[in-house]
Design brief:
Distance between the termini: 27 Å
Number of helices: 4
Number of strands: 6
Oligomer: single chain
Number of domains: 2
CATH class of the largest domain: Mainly Beta
Length: 152
Amino acid sequence: MRPEPTNTLPDGVRAMWLCEAVISVLVIVAIGFAIAAAVDALMPWLPLVAALAGLAHIVLLPRERYRRYRWELHEEELDLLDGVLNVTRTIVPITRIQHVSVQRTGWTSVFDLVRLNVHTAAGETTIPGLEPARAADVRDRILARLRRPDDL
């Protein structure tokens, strides 16, 4: 049996996911207030239920997601483990990688992070947050392995 990946994400990812959860909960509670104002029968309950569910979402989800996310770059593959309720193990063979990109957005810049995107014919796999220097190192290590001649 293959051991689980061991590399964790930097602490900034947890803060980024927490802020994302707070923003999404605020939007949902605002929608709850709008619906409650339009439908008198649900007026006092809908925003309250949304706020309580949102509080649980804020307290639990970012912490557990951060705690469980792991990744590892092996000689022959990139190994990712992600998920809270549905745990997904993704193994991307290095030989199937077509290109690698490091993505910095305005949002990730706030937390001094970048996303590492690995593209294959089957789609994109992402490490959601790394320090820029670490992401560049991983990108370069993947690209160095891709430049090796095929064993055919």
